[in-house]
């Protein structure tokens, strides 16, 4: 692995029942350790681990680089996964969204700047963590409650159609990286 | 809280959110909030319109105390939203068509009084409307299942049907010949009747109310 873990390693709670730990390196070279039960919440990471053939013996010697997720988001994700690693598996849903009460701990975890929350959603989408995705989307959905279209534009950062067209025009008029 | 923090800044974050994620977020919005978001931009109008709307019950019920002013009731499932209003018949029917004409609308239960059906049928016929797909249709209140209802039913596609009121024998014979009857999986006729049981044998569920059941009919049903 070419990435040097120069930044402090973020420690997570030791798992007594299952001592298998994995190392994950974020896009900005932060290194995280995560337990096997926790990492299973991310379909992407677990598929990667399975495909790489990582075992209890070689897991810590082979850090997994995740280039699409920065350290800040990864820290939140690791905290979330460790917190929910022993949760009961929820049934798949088809037509309707799941009804649930957002736990206070998770609400606190997700009480972050809107832009950070959207970045976290992108990371969650990439890592395919269904429960965190539901929670983030619920928090973002709650922001829209009883808001006018104008307020929604501000909260979600939605440009008007005119602004959007202007942005598109300026993007197409501006020279590319080589021009 | 985060919404207070984010209220003061504009970043193009929503535009960069993948469609599948937007779809999940939209499902957590109430119907009113979705309508407000729909007004934000063309893209959001498209996103909201693409989202299925699950209506648990849509009903047009005649109100005895307000003749010619039926109650339009809509119950949207998850997130729960109710709308109930008493309107002049023409307005109620107009609203009804707006709802059934929404893109991606899925209606579980449609409840109609016989009273409104002639007008609904005329408008369906005039507008050359496509079939209205519902899970269950319930014809309600005292009245007669007549030819007009029979013609109206041809504009519906349903799995289950609840028919209150009397059905004239000749109308029933015409009804069992319709594609809708053949495709139905369940029928409930709560009024006492002596309709031929042979017409119900293709159904998965059947509730009939009869004064008497002959041994032959019982054996046929079994």
From TrEMBL, chain A:
<dbReference type="InterPro" id="IPR036296">
    <property type="entry name" value="SKP1-like_dim_sf"/>
</dbReference>
<dbReference type="Pfam" id="PF03931">
    <property type="entry name" value="Skp1_POZ"/>
</dbReference>
<feature type="domain" description="SKP1 component dimerisation">
    <location>
        <begin position="130"/>
        <end position="166"/>
    </location>
</feature>
<dbReference type="InterPro" id="IPR011333">
    <property type="entry name" value="SKP1/BTB/POZ_sf"/>
</dbReference>
<dbReference type="InterPro" id="IPR016897">
    <property type="entry name" value="SKP1"/>
</dbReference>
<feature type="domain" description="SKP1 component POZ">
    <location>
        <begin position="23"/>
        <end position="85"/>
    </location>
</feature>
<dbReference type="InterPro" id="IPR016073">
    <property type="entry name" value="Skp1_comp_POZ"/>
</dbReference>
<dbReference type="InterPro" id="IPR016072">
    <property type="entry name" value="Skp1_comp_dimer"/>
</dbReference>
<keyword id="KW-0833">Ubl conjugation pathway</keyword>
<dbReference type="GO" id="GO:0006511">
    <property type="term" value="P:ubiquitin-dependent protein catabolic process"/>
</dbReference>
<comment type="similarity">
    <text>Belongs to the SKP1 family.</text>
</comment>
<protein>
    <recommendedName>
        <fullName>Skp1-related protein</fullName>
    </recommendedName>
</protein>
<dbReference type="Pfam" id="PF01466">
    <property type="entry name" value="Skp1"/>
</dbReference>
<dbReference type="InterPro" id="IPR001232">
    <property type="entry name" value="SKP1-like"/>
</dbReference>
Automatic annotation (TrEMBL), chain B:
<dbReference type="GO" id="GO:0045087">
    <property type="term" value="P:innate immune response"/>
</dbReference>
<dbReference type="InterPro" id="IPR040161">
    <property type="entry name" value="FB224"/>
</dbReference>
<feature type="domain" description="F-box">
    <location>
        <begin position="18"/>
        <end position="56"/>
    </location>
</feature>
<protein>
    <recommendedName>
        <fullName>F-box domain-containing protein</fullName>
    </recommendedName>
</protein>
<dbReference type="InterPro" id="IPR001810">
    <property type="entry name" value="F-box_dom"/>
</dbReference>
<dbReference type="Pfam" id="PF00646">
    <property type="entry name" value="F-box"/>
</dbReference>
């Amino acid at each position: 692995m070419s990435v040097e873990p120069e930044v402090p390693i973020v420690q997570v709670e030791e798992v007594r029942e299952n001592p298998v730990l994995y190392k994950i390196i974020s896009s900005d070279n932060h290194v995280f350790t995560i337990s096997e039960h926790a990492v299973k919440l991310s379909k992407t990471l677990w598929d990667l681990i399975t495909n790489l053939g990582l075992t209890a013996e070689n897991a810590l010697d082979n850090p997994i680089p995740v280039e699409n997720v920065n350290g800040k988001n990864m820290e939140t994700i690791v905290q979330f996964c460790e917190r929910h690693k022993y949760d009961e598996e929820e049934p798949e849903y088809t037509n309707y969204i799941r009804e649930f009460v957002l736990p206070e701990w998770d609400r606190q975890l997700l009480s972050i700047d809107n832009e950070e929350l959207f970045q976290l959603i992108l990371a969650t989408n990439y890592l395919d963590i269904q429960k965190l995705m539901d929670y983030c989307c619920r928090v973002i959905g709650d922001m829209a409650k009883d808001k006018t279209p104008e307020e929604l534009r501000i909260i979600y950062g939605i440009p008007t159609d005119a602004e959007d067209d202007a942005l598109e025009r300026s993007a197409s008029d501006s020279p590319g990286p080589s021009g | 809280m985060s919404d207070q923090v984010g209220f003061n800044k504009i970043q193009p974050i929503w535009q960069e959110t993948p469609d599948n994620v937007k779809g999940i977020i939209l499902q957590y919005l109430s119907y009113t909030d979705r309508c407000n978001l729909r007004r934000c931009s063309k893209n959001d109008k498209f996103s909201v319109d693409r989202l299925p709307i699950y209506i648990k019950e849509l009903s047009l019920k005649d109100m005895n105390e307000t003749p010619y002013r039926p109650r339009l009731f809509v119950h949207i499932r998850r997130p729960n939203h109710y709308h109930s209003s008493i309107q002049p018949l023409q307005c109620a029917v107009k609203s009804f068509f707006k709802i059934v004409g929404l893109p991606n609308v899925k209606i579980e239960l449609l409840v109609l009084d016989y009273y409104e059906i002639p007008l609904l049928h005329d408008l369906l016929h005039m507008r050359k409307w496509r079939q209205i797909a519902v899970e269950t249709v319930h014809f309600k209140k005292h009245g007669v299942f007549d030819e007009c209802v029979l013609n109206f039913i041809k504009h519906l596609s349903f799995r289950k049907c609840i028919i209150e009121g009397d059905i004239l024998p000749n109308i029933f014979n015409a009804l069992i010949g319709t594609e809708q009857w053949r495709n139905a999986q369940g029928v409930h006729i709560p009024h006492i009747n002596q309709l031929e049981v042979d017409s119900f044998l293709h159904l998965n569920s059947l509730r009939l109310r009869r004064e008497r059941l002959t041994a032959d009919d019982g054996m046929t049903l079994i």
